[in-house]
Specification:
Order of helices and strands: HHEHHHEEEEEHEH
Largest sheet: 4 strands, antiparallel
Number of strands: 7
Helix content: 40-55%
């Protein structure tokens, strides 16, 4: 268990956002600015291993699923079952390993390649990950802007509605790379100040 924990932290450390200089982030976002558009703020999600409230449900489920798939595969091998049954369980073990460990590593990679920005006209989320993407929201089109603060001053700013409560909503590590969830600034520093900045920029842009 200690070796596994050390391996995970080593993998996560390679994707920490602190490895990227703020100047490089500024230049990356300035490439997306239009004529007369000004960059007001640049930030990043945290690096490393991140647990959410929903993981209180999803982690035990993924561990049970992994245990069941290993038990199934072991029982199949010991029973001299046909080769088809042996290979049948392999994809399920791969999926279970991803749900238990792989999703955290992939999510850390995606966060390490993500830059947030607020301009005089838009909110930007740039991901230079496996599939590079840019999510752009006009300040005038943002109807709901929801802030959730943590005690340390960090927090999340969601641009849209979340349809479920935090405990039931899939954690970010389950949905990294998907665009179905509302665009969100995930656990940014000084979240209240950024939230106020967005509101002020909306007022000016209106």
């Amino acid at each position: 268990m200690r070796r596994l924990r050390a391996f995970l932290w080593k993998e996560m450390a390679t994707y920490r956002s602190c490895d990227h200089e703020t100047g490089a982030d500024d230049e990356r976002l300035r490439c997306e600015l239009g004529a007369g558009e000004r960059l007001l703020w640049v930030g990043r999600p945290p690096g490393g291993l991140v647990f959410e409230v929903a993981d209180l449900v999803y982690v035990p489920f993924s561990l049970l699923f992994l245990a069941f798939t290993i038990f199934w595969e072991g029982a199949t091998l010991l029973s001299d079952a046909p080769l088809l049954f042996v290979f049948w369980g392999v994809p399920f073990i791969i999926v279970a390993l991803h749900l238990t460990i792989g999703r955290f590593i992939f999510d850390a990679h995606v966060r390490g390649c993500t830059v947030y920005g607020v301009t005089s006209q838009r909110v930007l989320i740039v991901e230079d990950s496996v599939r590079p993407s840019i999510r752009s929201l006009s300040l005038r089109s943002i109807v709901e802007c929801r802030l959730v603060e943590c005690r340390d001053g960090s927090g999340e700013i969601a641009f849209g509605k979340h349809g479920s409560v935090p405990l039931l909503r899939p954690p970010r590590s389950w949905t990294s790379g998907l665009k179905s969830a509302p665009p969100t600034f995930f656990r940014i520093r000084d979240a209240r100040a950024v939230y106020d900045l967005i509101r002020e920029a909306q007022h000016v842009a209106a």
